[in-house]
Structure prediction request, 282 residues.
Amino acid sequence: MQGTIVKQISNDYTVKLDDNTLVVCKARGKFRNLHLIPLVGDKVIIDYQNKYIMEILPRTNELIRPSIANVDQAVIITSVHIPNFSSNLLDKLLTIIEYNNIKPIICFTKLDLIDDEYRKEIDIYINYYRRIGYDVYLNTDEKIKDIFKDKVTVFAGQSGAGKSTLLNHLDETLNIATADVSAKLGRGRHTTRHVELLPVLGGLIADTPGFSSLDFIGMKNSDIRDSFIEFNQYRDKCEYQDCMHKSEADCEIKRQVESGNILSSRYENYLKFIDRKENVDY
Prediction:
């Protein structure tokens, strides 16, 4: 029988069959030999009688953190207050999600907790990301409820950014636990302990453990460059076809940064990302 893994706790995988029946299965030992671990979101074939996952069907994509497969879109929950806004973390998430061929959507949270002056600063980012083509929502915008139908959506972002709070807002029957942000660490405690796909607003939304750091697993410097979507419209004007927009002469990207068409924080984050990957051939 075929179904989708909608929940994993330890070695137990809850599989939702095509008729909506839920079956808790174990994974066959052969997957360890294949170095293949079943993920939430996987389409699988199960032995219904013995409650085993027999086969994992080909994936369209997968993420390492959070660990999930076959995602249509990722909503990046971006807090502006405790934890404070980090353009570096947002751009890192956007880069990784773009690389994995998943549609990124940005949602800013906790805007009601900041003063007018800080809000003007945040609005610069909101307007810029919208201008370069990203869908950007505010957690107070009811229109965000329209994006989930018939989609598998992952929520990504720091602990304490407001993922669980937003999920509860979308569907108050979920009652997902939330916790205050640690004053010492400046981030939230992990209230979500496992990955689970929840039926919400006609689609499936993944509630995932929070995190505060990421790595560019499997990505080359050129992959990072190509995932900065606004760079692509100017690249043909660079002198070198394989320009990395760092120290090359006659670089159009650097000119666009100087003119203000490319946000300086985006370019600075890009340089930080590729500097961390200098040992990787591109």
About this structure: Confidence is low (pLDDT under 50) at residues 181-191, 278-282. Residues 116-131 form the longest helix (16 residues). The longest strand covers residues 2-9.
